[in-house]
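Summary of Year 1 activities. Much of the first year was spent building the evaluation harness for sequence design. The harness presents a backbone, in tokenized form, and records the residue chosen at every position. We chose the following record to illustrate the format because it has been used consistently in internal testing since the harness was completed.
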């Protein structure tokens, strides 16, 4: 059951990261379209890339915490 829960949480994390990436891309496009200054366009592109890397990192951290909990008990018999 915990494996199913982990998969669902992973899917939710991926969906959330996807929407955040889409928001970042849309924001960049709006800023790029409304800005005439070339330097500002480059800065907007760099911020978008930084935000994308941050989102992907957060997604990996989220997924790492979703793994099924494993408990191992060892018994020694003589």
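For this record, the design step produced the sequence shown next.
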């Amino acid at each position: 059951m915990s494996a199913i829960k982990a998969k669902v949480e992973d899917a939710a994390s991926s969906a959330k990261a996807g929407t955040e990436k889409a928001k970042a891309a849309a924001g960049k496009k709006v800023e790029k379209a409304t800005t005439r200054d070339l330097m500002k366009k480059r800065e907007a592109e760099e911020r978008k890339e930084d935000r994308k890397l941050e989102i992907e990192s957060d997604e990996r951290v989220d997924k790492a915490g979703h793994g099924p909990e494993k408990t191992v008990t060892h018994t020694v018999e003589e």
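The chain has one domain: 2-64. Quantitative recovery figures across the full test set are reported in Table 2.
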